[in-house]
Amino acid sequence: MSYESTLSRVETYFDKTATRTWERLTSDAPVSRIRETVRQGREKMRAQILSRLGEDLRGARVLDAGCGAGQMTAELAARGAEVVAVDISPSLVRIAEARLPAGLPGRVHFTSGDMLDPAHGRFDHVVAMDSLIYYRLPDLARALDRLARRAEGRVVFTVAPRTPLLMAMWQSGKLFPRSDRSPTMVPHAPEAIARALRDAGTPARLKVLERVAQGFYISQALEVSR
After folding, report:
1. Do 85 and 147 touch, CB atoms closer than 8 A?
2. Which pLDDT does position 185 carry in this prediction?
3. How far apart are CA 97 and CA 64, in angstroms?
4. Has residue 177 got a pLDDT over 50?
5. For the chain, give me the number of helices (H) and strands (E)?
6. For position 176, what pLDDT does the model report?
7. Band of the pLDDT at 226, cuts 50, 70, 90?
8. Helix 3-12 and helix 137-148: axis angle, to 10°?
9. pLDDT at residue 166 in the model
10. Where exactly are the structural domains of the chain?
């Protein structure tokens, strides 16, 4: 699939099929034991990403690429950042706007659409937590290249790691395609991403951060910086 066709499937899933599921998962509402592990894993990953940017973000402009229900957005603004929070799902953006606490020291601009749109401008940092996990390597490298060229500092993002378990799940999903199935994560190895970035001429280097494995949530954090 091309970047555009994958983006369209992601929009359909999060804006129509799974909006209520993600609204509940990203709240304090009770969830199943499986989803609780996903919630806990996402909390750990969010904390790791934030730690790469620092506690004081006053004066920094940050792109929250794939902001979802706005948890990362709120924490960035609480640290003083000016945040552009973008998500392909207008429904999730509305939830994020409604949940944003009043009186945060930073400013937030919410918008729905493609996180790669150059109209969003330039940034000090970019975070993309679990928003690039559905793309094949060429599209992932091109997306990172575009983000890195608009960031003065770090682009911190996540991918599905290329583990035996996730590869088996991916292959099984490919064998049983269904039009109503959620977008499938595409596992990537850091070495392959680094090669693809070099091939794309990206003016930045890749750094491997910690992996979070919490029950059914398995995600690898990485960072591109000049």
Report:
1. no
2. 85
3. 13
4. no
5. 8, 7
6. 38
7. confident
8. 90
9. 56
10. 3-225
> Is 26 strand, coil or helix?
coil
Q: How far is CA 79 from CA 39, 44, 57, 76, 193, in A?
A: 22, 18, 5, 5, 30
Strand order across the 154-159 sheet: 107-112, 82-87, 61-65, 125-128, 154-159, 217-225, 205-214
User: Residues 63-84: pLDDT tens digits?
Assistant: 999 999 999 999 999 999 999 9
Contact indicator for 201, 24 with CB cutoff of 8 Å: no
Nearest in space to 139 (alpha carbons), one of 193, 215, 73, 63: 193
Place of tokens 């792109």: 63
According to CATH, what is the number of the domain 3-225? 3.40.50.150
Token pair of 146, please? 């575009």
Task: Note whether 165 and 114 are within 8 A (CB).
Answer: no
